[in-house]
Amino acid sequence: xxxxxxxxxxLREQLDDPxxxxxxxxxxxxxxxxxDADEPLILDDPEQLTIATDRGAxxxxxxxxxxxxxxxxxSRRSGCWQHGVVFCCPKSLAQSHCRSLITELGLDHDAIRxxxxxxxxxxxxxxxxxxxxxxxxxxxxxxxxxxQDAGRSVLExxxxxxxxxxxxxxxxxxxxxxxxxxxxxxIDKVKTPQGPHTHVLPKFLKCGRTHPANIPVPxxxxxxxxxxxxxxxxxxxxxxxxxxxxxxxxxxxLLKLWGVPEYCAEKTRAMDALRSGLYADAYDCPRTxxxxxxxxxxxxxxxxxxxxxxxxxxxxxxxxxxxxESDGDRNED
Length: 333
Prior knowledge:
- By secondary structure, this protein is of the alpha+beta class.
- It has two domains: 3-228, no CATH class; 261-327, no CATH class.
- It has helices at 3-15, 91-94, 140-149, 161-168, 202-205, 245-258, 261-276, 289-305, 312-319, and strands at residues 21-26, 29-33, 43-45, 50-52, 56-60, 67-74, 81-90, 103-107, 120-123, 132-137, 171-176, 179-183, 197-200, 221-228.
- Helix 3 runs antiparallel to helix 4, helix 7 crosses helix 8 and helix 8 (289-305) runs antiparallel to helix 9 (312-319).
């Protein structure tokens, strides 16, 4: 099986799993696609890697130059971790239009649903390097306002556009080199809604980064698509659930396939030492931050899968206590 075929197969399987979710976006502007297990699909084409519900849609468009990276990160929740796969492309291919001003793009001929192709697409001008973050609307009032403010920044303090977008909830569209995510359901002013949703956070956008620091995007590439397979500890809403061994085992196969070699090697070394009964004092602590994270994730996973291991407390006290929190991630969970 070729590299490209493996990517297609994994994505097809994950699209078919309602416990998995996806996102396209940058640091501070992101569109996420989630769906419920019993939610009707209005479009389902696994071969074309396209799926849609009444609340949102996702279309993945693969190219030859893709680097998948599977990763695990420490959660802020005690004893927990997160995982995902980021699909990256060379900067020369992945660069967005990087518009900094509101720009009318015309009819959205590439809309996932045929019914949306008569609406007008506007780039919000968020200056993200790896994604064009847009809105789509046919609402006359919003169109008038957008056209009046075209050529200005939506992030200007005096701009009326952001408030108007929140009020009218047009479709939000994130477009990268690997496809597009579309969000149809209304913006919730109070809390993040269940299902497809977007985040636009000006404070983070000002950083000019394309991804959180704890995601191992290879040098010379930009992240264009993220996959979040089912988590062993949390459901799709981030709520605690009973530990699910099958989700852990399933992701380990992706980590073996696409994980960072240094991370995987340290995690294997730690797991072998723990299972052999080695005491924590006899283990050489990894010298790199990535290695220490691998060790701490290994400890947390082993604690879930083998809670009776007699050496665990000693390892946890030495390597995964409050004193080691500086190696923690920066996830917003």
